[in-house]
Amino acid sequence: MRPAWAAIDLKALQHNLRLLREKAGHRQLLAILKANAYGHGLTRIAAELQQADAIGVARVDEALALRQEGIVKPIVLLEGFFEPSQLAVLAASQIQTVIHTEHQLVQLERAELNTPLKVWLKVDTGMHRIGVEPEETVAFYRRLQASDNVDGDPILMTHFASADTPEVEQNQQQLAVFNSLQDSLQARLSISNSAAFLADLAPQDNWVRPGLVLYGVSPFADRRGQQLGLKPVMTLQASIISTREIDQGESVGYGAAWTARHKTRIGILAIGYGDGYPRNAPEGTPVWIEGRCYPLVGRVSMDMLAVDLGLDSDIEIGATGVLWGPQLPVEEVAEHVGTISHELLCNVARRVVLDYGDEN
Ligand SMILES: Cc1ncc(COP(=O)(O)O)c(C=O)c1O
């Protein structure tokens, strides 16, 4: 028996990469590996990315961990540096930076670097999270071009607020803002995350930035990854460590939050919110065990959760439950929980063993 573990299917990853590579055609692929490669293991996933052109992360530490593991591919820091002291570190390790504020621009201009950095200039075309104002963009771009600390022409990037609903008007509004800048800059462009890429929202991209789809998961509410030809990479699993019969009216777990409506049998799986399984998963969230789904009942504990096995199943101690994976799409679990697959995947906790099947 095992507590929570996640089998990581590297063949599925390669399958997804091939599919994305084909779809990208002449466009380059910036594979997004932030948040521990969406819970799949940063350095191990990075080592499998022969088919990608560069890697995107959110923190300097993530970029340095990749370099320490001998990853030589270009790495892009998606929110750029946070402190000017990090600039020398980026230069020494050849890490590319996004610039999204005047603050960063000035610090970059003033820095004394041995090697210039490759830079991506992020424009706020309407998401209003990070990025320079459209009307300031041309001046920013020219300053970057003029700086000795910048290697070559910056790549111009933006990010959609609503790419997972490609039909909404905001996407076209953002694109119109971006396109008007491109008229004066003629820069290389990067616009699309997974959803925008699959929905062909921005075919003018030179660089696409897929994250979620690499891991085989759909960015759209109305389709699963498998319907898009993708294969889920992670199977989150745990063993059944206890079963018991309970009578009608008996409750299960903390706060007696669930009470049996009739006599039944409960199975306890060795996984809980301490492993990253969401504590707010409601009654009825499916768990797949030996060929079918059983409903979660009661509150998720730190190390355990309960499922209602019913009286007719022959599931015993030692059986393996799948919390999500090819048998039970993470998209479906996310729907039950009221969140997105991104959050479920990247919350998988450090104590969950990532099993790459190396011993086979
Ligand atoms: C700037 C940027 N590009 C691309 C991505 C990848 O997004 P997704 O996982 O939806 O493909 C992200 C992730 O949030 C991002 O912040």
UniProtKB/TrEMBL annotation:
<comment type="pathway">
    <text>Cell wall biogenesis; peptidoglycan biosynthesis.</text>
</comment>
<dbReference type="InterPro" id="IPR020622">
    <property type="entry name" value="Ala_racemase_pyridoxalP-BS"/>
</dbReference>
<dbReference type="Pfam" id="PF01168">
    <property type="entry name" value="Ala_racemase_N"/>
</dbReference>
<dbReference type="GO" id="GO:0030632">
    <property type="term" value="P:D-alanine biosynthetic process"/>
</dbReference>
<feature type="binding site">
    <location>
        <position position="302"/>
    </location>
    <ligand>
        <name>substrate</name>
    </ligand>
</feature>
<dbReference type="InterPro" id="IPR029066">
    <property type="entry name" value="PLP-binding_barrel"/>
</dbReference>
<feature type="modified residue" description="N6-(pyridoxal phosphate)lysine">
    <location>
        <position position="34"/>
    </location>
</feature>
<keyword id="KW-0663">Pyridoxal phosphate</keyword>
<feature type="binding site">
    <location>
        <position position="129"/>
    </location>
    <ligand>
        <name>substrate</name>
    </ligand>
</feature>
<dbReference type="GO" id="GO:0005829">
    <property type="term" value="C:cytosol"/>
</dbReference>
<comment type="similarity">
    <text>Belongs to the alanine racemase family.</text>
</comment>
<dbReference type="InterPro" id="IPR011079">
    <property type="entry name" value="Ala_racemase_C"/>
</dbReference>
<dbReference type="GO" id="GO:0008784">
    <property type="term" value="F:alanine racemase activity"/>
</dbReference>
<comment type="function">
    <text>Catalyzes the interconversion of L-alanine and D-alanine. May also act on other amino acids.</text>
</comment>
<dbReference type="InterPro" id="IPR001608">
    <property type="entry name" value="Ala_racemase_N"/>
</dbReference>
<feature type="domain" description="Alanine racemase C-terminal">
    <location>
        <begin position="233"/>
        <end position="357"/>
    </location>
</feature>
<dbReference type="GO" id="GO:0030170">
    <property type="term" value="F:pyridoxal phosphate binding"/>
</dbReference>
<feature type="active site" description="Proton acceptor; specific for D-alanine">
    <location>
        <position position="34"/>
    </location>
</feature>
<dbReference type="InterPro" id="IPR009006">
    <property type="entry name" value="Ala_racemase/Decarboxylase_C"/>
</dbReference>
<dbReference type="Pfam" id="PF00842">
    <property type="entry name" value="Ala_racemase_C"/>
</dbReference>
<keyword id="KW-0413">Isomerase</keyword>
<dbReference type="InterPro" id="IPR000821">
    <property type="entry name" value="Ala_racemase"/>
</dbReference>
<protein>
    <recommendedName>
        <fullName>Alanine racemase</fullName>
        <ecNumber>5.1.1.1</ecNumber>
    </recommendedName>
</protein>
<comment type="pathway">
    <text>Amino-acid biosynthesis; D-alanine biosynthesis; D-alanine from L-alanine: step 1/1.</text>
</comment>
<feature type="active site" description="Proton acceptor; specific for L-alanine">
    <location>
        <position position="254"/>
    </location>
</feature>
